[in-house]
Design a protein that fits this description.
By secondary structure, the protein is α+β, with helices and mostly antiparallel strands. It has 6 helices and 9 strands. Helix content is 27%, strand content 36%.
Length: 214
């Protein structure tokens, strides 16, 4: 595995689950509190040959900001069984640099000049819960309950980490919370994006499954 160049971001360690009725009561019983309720639109972008997503790079526009998720180290995958870890970049200059590099374009090129096209747009209604920090951890665990406008609901347990070492303990914490919530499934639970692609972009979906990205 190659060392990670200096991209500034946070590692999001997460596990998706199927939100069954009563999940909010269960969360509150574990001490979780509703932090906010929010509606937002995401548009995901790629080249027509799916070059970014085939490299497990997820570029989206949320509101007026670009965001990018990529595996935390070059050459790694963002998956560990049913849990995932991705480096989230939110600095607009880092995102343009990383995407330009992946596309072999001279850097820094603006994202508007890279021939990118939106391949998925959907609106999410999110209820975000926060669990208190445990065992001396600096950050609490966040649980998102999402409903997308194409009729799909998913839950996510997530912990943010700054380093790979922190990400390892975050993985354990995420799995522990899923266990306590009774939602620890052995196999990965599909998220909004993979469901959107399966329903609306079957060719793109098939390419990503074939390449073991989804
Ligand atoms: C990383 C990724 C995709 C991008 C969407 O990421 P996700 O965290 O599912 O979206 P969302 O809206 O919850 O973002 P947040 O607000 O938490 O930042 S689409 C596919 N992947 C990779 C991936 C994968 N291969 N398998 C699983 C189970 N999840 C994600």
């Amino acid at each position: 595995m190659l060392p990670m160049p200096s991209l500034r971001g946070t590692i999001e360690v997460e596990r998706k689950f199927v939100p069954l009725p009563g999940v909010e009561d269960h969360l509150r019983a574990l001490g979780a509190e509703l932090q906010y309720e929010l509606v937002f639109q995401d548009s995901y972008y790629d080249r027509p040959d799916f070059r970014l997503t085939l490299a497990d790079l997820w570029l989206r526009r949320r509101g007026d900001r670009w965001e990018l998720k990529q595996p935390p180290a070059w050459g790694a995958r963002g998956l560990r069984g049913a849990s995932t870890q991705y480096l989230e970049l939110s600095r607009q200059d880092d995102i343009a640099r990383r995407v330009s590099e992946e596309l072999g374009a001279p850097s820094p090129l603006g994202l508007d000049a890279l021939g990118l096209q939106p391949f998925a747009t959907f609106v999410t209604h999110r209820r975000q819960f926060q669990l208190p920090p445990r065992g001396g951890a600096a950050r609490g665990v966040v649980v998102d309950l999402d409903t997308a406008d194409f009729g799909f609901a998913v839950g996510e347990v997530e912990v943010l980490a700054e380093t790979q070492e922190e990400a390892q303990s975050a993985l354990r914490e995420v799995e522990e919370i899923c266990q306590e919530l009774g939602v620890l499934s052995d196999s990965p639970v599909p998220g909004k994006m993979s469901t959107f692609l399966r329903l609306n972009r079957p060719e793109h979906y098939a390419r990503l499954v074939e390449a073991s990205v989804l």
